[in-house]
Amino acid sequence: MGQLRIIKGIPVARGLALGRVHVVRARPKDEPTWSVTAEEVDREDDRLEKTIDLTGEKLRRRQSLVAAQSGAKDAEILSVHRMLLQDPGSRRRVESCIRDQRINAEAAVQQLASRYRIGLICNTGYTGGRVLRQVLARHGLRAYAQHPLLNALNIDSTFYRPQTAQQLAHQAAEVPESFRFVVKAYTGLTTAPDTPRAQQRGIEPVFLDPAYAERRVITPLVTGLGSKLGAVLFQFSPLGYRYTRSPETFVARLREFLTALPRGPVYAVELRDPEILGAQYEDALAAAGAVHCSTVHPRMPPVDRQVRDRGREAMVIRWMLRAGDDYESAGARFAPFNRIQEPDKLSRSRIAALVKRGLSSGCDVYVMAANNAEGSAPLSLFDLATAISPPSSK
């Protein structure tokens, strides 16, 4: 008789089950890269086609097995995997990468996958459905990062208090090299000091202060997260009439602020005042090498009409709250956030179109979702993945 081994895991249901144990270790893998000659490009395309067909068939069989054993709902995630795998647009981009860069198929696929990142907006704790919360409560960020579709996280708690480099490094150690964090900068940098919000909450008066931003926000982020820092997000609360009546004044200050920050990280700006949008705002971002964060929010125009396309710049999108809603009401209606309760199909289709355009132009794309968008951020993201890669005819 073999040696007794005790394996600890996460139960998905109460009770006792007898059966064969399967130990799965999900670890991200960096695929090797090698050069191919012009004559070998067709061979790599053939390898890609055969691998897609073989993997698609394996996923189809596994989906049927899961559906038979656990139900069609549990098997839906494998349907999303098949859709992503068989998306003709993604395949064309991989083939172009093989041809243009003269690299092997594995490396070309990994390049494409690394440009599209989706994740949850995390404030005081990890949010999502009941099972996801149980997993994260027990195993934290390491468990979250092993999900095949969740390869980024929006840290929102730093909006209220900056984290130290040591705190950030601890989080970075929990995730693979391909994972990325979108981190919200401290609210004092983005809240006008004469607004009621700043005065009522005692927010530190460091509005658009580049020295404070570098010392307390940027340096700890770069030191703690390193290459896993995806973007630094400056989310401006409503600025008040003083700034919205003359947007050019604010835009000039914003440009000076962003230009003074250390080069290297992606800086994204999210607004709550549509009056600021326009050519001057976009020119200011471009001059500083920053990008606009397109957001689904009641105070802002539709997510796909906030700024013009900017080619190969990084694209940051946050799916927050539908038009006409508010956080308190949505939170009360949607708790415990374990299912989509009010689908926002219009916002989903707009975000999907933005993502497709971004990937087609070759830029990095980050999409972050909140529970208050539809009722469950993880499920919103899974449905978004389906919208981006619709079912193939195969």
How is this structure best described in words?
Helices cover 45% and strands 11% of the residues. The chain is α/β, with parallel strands linked by helices and 394 residues long. It folds into two domains: 71 residues; 273 residues, Protein of unknown function UPF0759 (TIM Barrel). It is globular, with a radius of gyration of 22 Å.
Topology record:
Elements: H1 41-70, H2 72-86, H3 88-101, H4 105-115, E1 116-122, H5 130-139, H6 141-145, E2 152-155, H7 165-172, E3 180-184, H8 196-201, H9 210-225, E4 229-235, H10 241-244, H11 247-260, E5 267-270, H12 279-288, E6 291-296, E7 315-319, H13 327-334, H14 345-360, E8 365-369, H15 377-388
Parallel strand pairs: 1-2, 1-8, 2-3, 3-4, 4-5, 5-6, 6-7, 7-8
Helix pairs in contact: 1-2, 2-15, 3-4, 7-9, 11-12, 14-15
- Low-confidence stretches at least 5 residues in length (pLDDT < 50)? 124-137
Calculate the terminal CA-CA distance, rounded to whole Å.
48 Å
The proportion of strand residues reads 5-15%
Shape: globular
CATH class group of the largest domain: Alpha Beta
Number of helices: 15
SSE arrangement, N to C:
HHHHEHHEHEHHEHHEHEEHHEH
CATH superfamily of the largest domain: Protein of unknown function UPF0759
Query: Under the CATH scheme, which architecture of the largest domain would be assigned?
Result: Alpha-Beta Barrel
Determine the mean pLDDT. Answer: 83
Largest β-sheet summary: 8 strands, parallel, barrel
Q: Using only CA atoms, what is the Rg?
A: 22 Å
What order do the strands of the largest sheet run in, or round the barrel if closed? Answer: 1-2-3-4-5-6-7-8
Kindly state the number of beta strands.
8
Structural class: alpha/beta
**CATH fold-level label of the largest domain:** TIM Barrel
How many distinct domains?
2
Helicity range: 40-55%
